[in-house]
Amino acid sequence: MKKKILIGSLVAVALTGGIIFAADHIDAPAVTGANGTSTGADITDVYAFQSPADNSKMVFVMNVEGLMSPAVTSMASFPNNVMYEFNIDNNGDNVEDLVIQALVQNGKIRVYGPVAPATAGTSSTVRTNGPMTEATVTAYNASSPVTGSNTNGIKVFAGPRDDPFFFDLVRYKEIIGGTQTSFRNPGVDTFAGTNVMSIVVEVPKSMLGNASTINIWGETKSK
Amino acid sequence: MLGRKKLFSYLTLAMTVVVISSCDKKDNTTNDNFDTSGTYTIKDQMARPAVATVFIGASRKDEFNATTPSTMSAKFKADITDKLTAFGYTSNALGQSKDQFASLLATDVLNVKTNGTTTFFDGTNVLTGRKLDDDVIDDELLLIFGGPSGTSNPGLTKDNVNGNDKPFLTSFPYLASPW
Fold it and tell me: Which residue of A has its CA nearest to B144?
């Protein structure tokens, strides 16, 4: 009975809350493309983790343009009017003290920072007064990823990748739609076989301040 | 105004366009034609997976995506509380009341430990980062639907997809090659 009520409320939420997608795939109406497709400014997922290869470094990942088939991926590129920005708060007030800003132009990515932003908030100018790390954007058909590095230890990657996100989204939608009452076992990964455009930056932790916990979030900004 | 991409290709063709290029240099264009000028305005934003997706209604998604995390709670905590009520939420395996859980969710940042294990949840560490193989959907389903002991609504607390469809790399950039 309780479950029935719960499912009922799920349906109500679905009806009032619009179609529910995934981690954050196609979840920004302002940057959703034709026919509901994800664009190069639509963030699908953000990750932050200690480098598996070097525990003195932190890895930041921002993925955009979700649910791409291999054919679509082969023609995909990063827009040249979008800034990909990792925001880092290192004093616990959820306001960015440092930013890592990435721009993609002419087949190259340049990553500026970590560096203090000119001003915190929803508008940004490029901070060229800190470190800059460059890499060639990895092509779809590249045999191995092309990465860039800086003598200060920062590494940079930009290009198509398998979407690391996994979720039985189809079944979830059926539950929300009221035609199913529970997940299936085994589940089916809706994101299997799909790609994203990915920006990965690895940074020495010493460049992130002294806090034991930082708060981070990803933003896309355009001009 | 010529688009930068167009400008770049024209540069290789005509000297007259070089004049335009030198004009643009006033706006911070570097000497190798990488434009760092101008002001960029927010379009999308994300930290914890699925927060905007599940808890923010369609009519306020763009507003949420353009709100800085430090001001999110004042604007969106009530929406999140309402959704939790609709989900039948009472408490979760972290012992959070509805108000406490809504407060956590309403400031959409990833908390990341700078020393040691970084994971969304691994059975021991809670919200110390997000790594590629974290089963974040199961973690969130459990906290939303699992009740105080994590045993409520067993059909809704895990999706039974427990890993990615490709192995991750052991070296930078860690994400697997595209399909």
Answer: A6
